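S1.2 Input.
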Amino acid sequence: MPIPDFQSLMLPTLKAFNASEEMPLSEVRKQIKDAEGLSAEDIREMLSSGRQTKFANRVNWAVIYMERAHLLARVRRGVYRLTQEGKRLLVQAPLRIDINLLEEKYPDFAEWRQRANTLPRGKDEGAKQNDNIIETPEEVLERVAQQLRSELEADVLSRVRDAESSFLS
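S1.3 Output.
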């Protein structure tokens, strides 16, 4: 089973924090793995950088976004707790938590996103783009870096092939 995108992990992440006063992210990931029916193999899949698993990365970004909306609060490194606002949202029993909902309901989050985005856009265009966001910011950077690396390799190879044979002497 593929790892859900980070927006799809927001609601299960928030629900996991409802089980305890404060919780380390390692325990949250374990609860989400079980709730989502993910296998050990699924959660071991690495990002292309090889520095972190895709699952941990996506849960971490879900936490960061919800912290910016004040649904979660950092207690200490790697440990968070559900805020009163987070509890209120869970009582409303949303079917999904995503960027659109966070921007609509939480002005601080919307302001943070506005500052983070370098391209101005209208409300309709922004909502449309938010629905299509499935990669975390780190995944986007890795994909773009890999694409640039591939283009550079192809360019260098092409130049070497086109060079005079004396070039290699």
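S1.4 Remarks. The first strand starts at residue 23 and ends at 24.
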